Amino acid sequence: MGYEGKIQLEAALRPEGTFADFRKMLDKYARVEAIMVVGHNPNLSEFLGRIISEPGCEAALELRKGAVAKVEVRRTSGSLQWCLTPKILRSLYAAAAESSRPKSSRK
Question: Which of 1, 20, 44, 104 pairs with 77 at a CA distance of 20 to 30 A?
Fold first, then answer.
């Protein structure tokens, strides 16, 4: 991926982490252009649903094992840009691998 920085471990992403912990973690990295968050369910699905919803109205999202989501976060809210399931990711990988194979001529 080209990442050369240090991986940060955050207590907010442990199974006992709370949404308040997660918000504090996001605030801590607010000045960074982009972060990748890797965690476990059910917390990550819950936190994602709460980030992209209006207060008091939680979106129901299920991040399956291996899923990837892009969320743009502003001060108090976020918007889901895309969410890719493992099945979609496998299809994209297969299509990319096939299109990058050298073409052979058939005569």
Answer: 1
The pTM is what?
0.75
Q: Tell me whether the omega of the peptide bond preceding residue 86 falls within 30 degrees of 0, making it cis.
A: no
Q: What percent of the chain has pLDDT over 70?
A: 90
Query: Rounded to whole angstroms, how far apart are CA atoms 22 and 8?
Result: 14
Phi-psi region of 71 (alpha: psi -120 to 50; beta: other; left: phi over 0): beta
User: What residues have CB less than 8 Å from 47, skipping those under 6 apart?
Assistant: 19, 22, 39
CA distances from 76 to 6, 9, 36, 43, 95 (A): 27, 23, 18, 19, 38
pLDDT tens, position by position, 83-96:
999 999 999 989 88
